[in-house]
Write a structure and sequence with these properties.
The chain is α+β, with helices and mostly antiparallel strands. The chain is built from nine helices and seven strands. The protein starts with a strand and ends with a strand. GO terms for molecular function: acyltransferase activity, transferring groups other than amino-acyl groups.
C-alpha cells in the first residue's frame, strides 16, 4: 500500500479525530499498557487515547498516515487513518498546559472509577515522571523531542510505517541539534526501537490491579 504522512494543522474536525481514534483503538486493542491505563475496560480505551491525541493537538504535533488517495478508492478508503504519532517538541510536554488538561485529561478522568483515578494520580503519574527523570536527567526530555504515542493498525504493521513516523520528526530534530526520546512497555517494542536507533536508558516495574509490567525509557543512540 502506498501511503502519505501528514501533520495535522489548523482546526480539526470531529470526523478526523474519530478516524485517528479508530486506528489507534485497533493498534492498541491488545496492548497491556493501554489495557491497564483504561482500567481493563474496553469502553475506556478510546477516551484514554483521545486524551493523548487532544493533548498533542493542543501542545504538540500529531502526524497521521493515510492511504495515498486514488480515484478508484472508496471515500472510506481515502479517509482512513492507518497510523498516527503524537510528539511534543522541545519546551513542551503532555498535559503541561491548562487547555490540555481541561480538554484532554479531565474528560478521561471524569469517566474512570475513584480507585483508578487514585492509581493514576498517586501512583502511575509520579512513577512515570521518576522513571524519565532517573533515565534522562531532570531536563533532557523537556529540552528535546518526545514521542508520546505511536501506533499502526495491525494489518499494516511491520511495513515500515512506524519507522517513517519517527523519521518524519527525526529530520526536524537533526536540523536543530535536538534528540529524540520516548518510553515503551513491551520487549517487542523495545526491539523495534533498538532497530531504529534508540537505546534503553532505564527501566522500572510498574504495578496495577491488572498486572505488573516493565516500562523502558529510551533515547537516540550516541
Amino acid at each position: 500500500m502506498s501511503y502519505t504522512i501528514r501533520q495535522i494543522n489548523g482546526p480539526v474536525s470531529d470526523a478526523e479525530i474519530e478516524a485517528i481514534l479508530d486506528s489507534q483503538a485497533s493498534a492498541f486493542a491488545k496492548d497491556h499498557f493501554a489495557h491497564v491505563c483504561s482500567d481493563a475496560d474496553k469502553t475506556l480505551l478510546r477516551p484514554f487515547i483521545r486524551s493523548v491525541i487532544i493533548a498533542g493537538l493542543l501542545g504538540g504535533e500529531v502526524y497521521v498516515v493515510e492511504p495515498e488517495k486514488t480515484n478508484s478508492g472508496t471515500d472510506s478508503d481515502n479517509d482512513r487513518v492507518i497510523g498516527a504519532a503524537v510528539w511534543f517538541p522541545p519546551g513542551r510536554e503532555m498535559f503541561d498546559s491548562e487547555d490540555q488538561r481541561k480538554q484532554g485529561l479531565e474528560p478521561f478522568f471524569a469517566q474512570i472509577s475513584p480507585d483508578h483515578l487514585k492509581w493514576w494520580l498517586e501512583y502511575f503519574l509520579p512513577a512515570y515522571a521518576k522513571l524519565t527523570s532517573d533515565a534522562f536527567g531532570s531536563s533532557f526530555k523537556h529540552e528535546n523531542w518526545h514521542l508520546q504515542w505511536i501506533g499502526v493498525i495491525p494489518e499494516e504493521s511491520r511495513k515500515g510505517i512506524g519507522s517513517a513516523l519517527i523519521d518524519k520528526v527525526r529530520e526536524k530534530a537533526e536540523k536543530s541539534n535536538h534528540k529524540l526520546c520516548l518510553e515503551t512497555s513491551s520487549e517487542e517494542n523495545l526491539r523495534f526501537y533498538n532497530r531504529v536507533g534508540f537505546s534503553s536508558r532505564g527501566q522500572t516495574v510498574l504495578k496495577s490491579h491488572h498486572g505488573d509490567w516493565t516500562m523502558y525509557a529510551l533515547s537516540e543512540k550516541e
